[in-house]
Design a protein that fits this description.
Radius of gyration: 21 Å
Bound molecules: flavin-adenine dinucleotide
Helix content: 25-40%
Organism: Streptomyces carminius
InterPro entries: FAD-bd, FAD/NAD-bd_sf, FAD_aromatic-hydroxylase
Protein name: FAD-dependent oxidoreductase
Largest sheet: 7 strands, mixed
Distance between the termini: 19 Å
Number of strands: 18
Number of domains: 2
GO molecular function, one term: FAD binding
Strand order of the largest sheet: 5-4-13-14-15-12-16
Shape: globular
Length: about 400
């Protein structure tokens, strides 16, 4: 298969119609490449507009090449957050080590970018909004596959038959549930729960993050640029997922407050801020692992199919690279079954390698025992004087098919 496949459909008589559910990262990226390949694309997103704000995300390795081919790398470089320091603190707030973030995650010589998630989503949407139909504030109610296509009924009542349906609807994908069954079958719990929210930057932090740890608990403040708001993050180990709390916002607040009761540093103020936050998001840390990503005329991409968790730091990059590879496979193979098989063959190993990074991320960011924390701190002190670590091979393990010809 060559990338010529990505322009193959242009000019053919009948455009194949694809519905993408989800306008996060994978959805608009896939829409871009499918449109270029001559597909008629509709994207349905349950939110009323592209979701802005949010925590910073990384575009690394292979995904950097994807955004370069989309022509948006210069804009992403402009939006690059340029975090300059990551400071680790002990239980009392004393400094353990202060590092260049690249010394920790590995950086490909200034090639990778870190941007606000909302900035990336807006840039992707802006790139395709004139070429693709977006249905905001709507979602798929039911879909029914048959030999000729997929009959879709939307929540709004609208109905249409598509050739193919793609679930790009994130970690808790409804498309996945409809096709393959409940999330529990595919969700691999990684032992942590987290709460993220924003709070005022009363600490004077700028272009930096601060991470406080005790065994099994972590509290982070992330200053994106010179913003007067901070991303606050409370993360804790729990052997079993708190299933009841996932359905009960008040129970989430109480659980986090109980776990961090008596903690030092600025943690009490963070817990207070969490209680007053209007953007609190609480979840378990987990991955999506599936034996197959397609069923009939429907297929999954991004977090819906292979969320790696923030501990791997590769969710956005997998979403971008996966979208490219799925579009390439669909353009190269008229038969969707062959296309989905090619997509899976092309991406599976890359996904596995990047999901495996989560273990290292957990050990580095949230050690669960006093001994592991001490080892981690010793390692960090060693990194203070070391040059930036090389990027993990997993980031670039996927070599994209040849460059896409300009439309
Ligand atoms: C706290 C946290 C920190 C993170 N940090 C990083 C990081 O440092 N680096 C990194 O690379 N990644 C990070 N990630 C992960 C990253 O945000 C995702 O992996 C990435 O956005 C995946 O893109 P996606 O398009 O597959 O899913 P999403 O971005 O989740 O997009 C899914 C879209 O589908 C929509 N949707 C959901 N259900 C429906 C429905 N039924 N119908 C229609 N639309 C629907 C949603 O509204 C959303 O717009 C982090 C995630 C979290 C939670």
């Amino acid at each position: 298969m060559t990338s010529a496949g990505l322009s193959k459909g242009v000019g053919t008589a009948v455009k194949r119609e694809v519905l993408i559910s989800g306008a996060g990262i994978a959805g608009p990226a896939l829409a871009y490449w499918l449109h270029r390949a001559g597909f008629a694309v509709t994207v349905v997103e349950k939110a009323r507009a592209p979701r802005d704000g949010g925590y910073p995300v990384d575009v690394r390795g292979t995904a950097t090449e994807v955004v370069r081919r989309m022509g948006i790398l210069p804009r992403l470089r402009e939006a690059h957050i340029d975090s300059r320091r990551c400071t680790f603190l002990d239980a009392d707030g004393g400094e353990v080590a202060s590092l260049d973030p690249r010394a920790l995650a590995g950086g490909a010589g200034g090639q990778d970018v870190e941007v606000r998630r909302g900035d990336l989503a807006a840039i992707l949407h802006g790139l395709v909004r004139d070429d693709v139909e977006f249905l905001f504030g709507d979602s798929v109610d039911t879909f029914d596959q048959h030999g000729q296509g997929v009959d879709v009924t939307f929540r709004s009542g609208r109905q249409h038959t598509f050739d193919l349906v793609v679930g790009a609807d994130g970690m808790h994908s409804r498309t996945r549930e409809s096709l393959f069954g409940p999330e529990e079958r595919f969700h691999r719990y990684l032992g942590y729960c987290f709460a993220v929210f924003t709070m005022p930057n009363t600490f004077g932090l700028s272009h930096e993050s601060v991470l406080w740890n005790t065994p099994g608990k972590g509290a982070a403040l992330y200053a994106v640029g010179d913003s007067d708001e901070l991303h606050a993050f409370l993360n804790f180990y729990r052997s079993e997922p708190p299933l009841e709390a996932l359905r009960d916002p008040q129970a989430q607040l109480d659980l986090v407050a109980a776990v961090f009761a008596g903690a030092g540093w600025e943690v009490p103020g963070m817990v207070d801020a969490m209680r007053g936050a209007d953007d609190l998001f609480f979840d378990t840390v987990g991955q999506i692992r599936m034996p197959h990503w397609s069923s009939g005329r429907a297929v999954l991409v991004g977090d819906a199919a292979y969320a790696p968790s923030f501990l791997a730091g590769q969710g956005t990059s997998l979403a971008l690279a996966g979208a490219y590879m799925l579009a390439d496979a669909l353009a190269a193979h008229r038969d969707h079954t062959a296309a989905f098989a090619a997509y899976e063959r092309g991406v599976r190993e890359f996904v596995t390698m990047n999901q495996a990074l989560a273990d290292k991320g957990a050990a580095r960011l949230f050690p669960t025992t006093a001994q592991a924390l001490e080892q981690r701190n010793t390692m960090l002190r060693g990194l203070v004087t070391a040059p930036s670590a090389a990027a993990p091979p997993a980031h670039s393990a996927l070599v994209l098919p040849e460059a896409v010809p300009a439309p």
